[in-house]
Amino acid sequence: MEILFISTIAGLLQGLTGFGAGIILMLYLPYLYPVIQCSGIIGIICLFLSLIMALQYRKFIELKKVLIPLSIYILISTITIVIGPSLNSSYLKKGLSLFFILLSFYFLFIKKKNTQIKMSIFISLFCILISSICDGLFGIGGPLMVIYFKNKTDNQNEYLGCIQLFFLVNCIYNTILRIINDILLPQHLSIILISIPAICLGLLIAKKISYQLNINFINKITYLIIGLSGLFNLIA
Fold it and tell me: What is the distance between the alpha carbons of residues 88 and 17, in angstroms, rounded to a whole number?
């Protein structure tokens, strides 16, 4: 089945970069379900994915680096999930896609290798706000939070631990909210149960090969995924 292959790739990318599973799944699931329902399906799949990775990197988690962005993120995504079904989100999605393409281009071709973005309060809030809105509408909140946590953490293990705990708590909360608002329905259970083992297989593959890859290569993969997700959503 196509969903098995796609879910395995989603798990592989999540294991290498700390995000990406939701993006890969969102490229396929809208052919089966309305976009707002896809966000609920992706949310519960990513819940299990984030749980596995958060446990794997639990020793490296810095809780204080997670709590503040998580509090803001949950507040904004709550509002977005509640009003999301009544919105025509097509224009927002196209604009967001273009932004992801430009962001990817900057990191891959313009930004110097050894320079860091200075995460001012304004830039930090921008990353959190836009990501939480995207998560509420499309189930994709990863790209800008990757930028945020990569600049707030000291190494790859701490980054993976913090961002997976962040996603885990957020996925649990948003899944409950989507069930309450009849976005996530019983008929979605079958595809969720099919996807989770395949994603776990992808994670296992990522764990086996990650030690053979250097951090610069992983970062390039991360930003390439951001750009490709924007491109696919722009033309979809």
Answer: 31
Q: How does residue 119 score in pLDDT terms, banded at 50, 70 and 90?
A: confident
Q: How far is CA 106 from the centre of its chain?
A: 20
Place of tokens 């009849």: 182
* Residues 52-88 pLDDT 10s: 889 989 999 999 999 999 999 989 988 887 887 676 6
CA distances for 234 relative to 80, 96, 186, 197, angstroms: 21, 9, 30, 30
The DSSP result for 56-99, as a single string, is HTGGG--THHHHHHHHHHHHHHHHHHHHGGGS--HHHHHHHHHH
Beta strands in the chain (DSSP E): none
What Å distances lie between residue 44 and 39, 77, 130, 155, 181, CA to CA?
Answer: 9, 15, 21, 28, 15
Q: Give the tens place of pLDDT for each residue, 34-57.
A: 777 887 888 888 888 888 889 989
What's the pTM? 0.70
Run of H or E residues at 52? helix 35-56
Please choose, from the candidates 45, 78, 32, the residue with its C-alpha nearest in 3D space to the C-alpha of residue 202: 45
Neighbouring residues of 75: CB distance < 8 A, sequence distance ≥ 6: 132
CA 71 vs. chain centroid, Å, equals 17
Residue 13 CA to residue 114 CA, distance in Å, equals 24
Domain borders along the chain are 2-235
| Cβ–Cβ under 8 Å, residues 25 and 45 | yes
* Residues whose CB is less than 8 angstroms from the CB of residue 145 and which lie 6 or more positions away in sequence, other chains included: 19, 69, 73, 127, 128, 131, 163, 166, 167
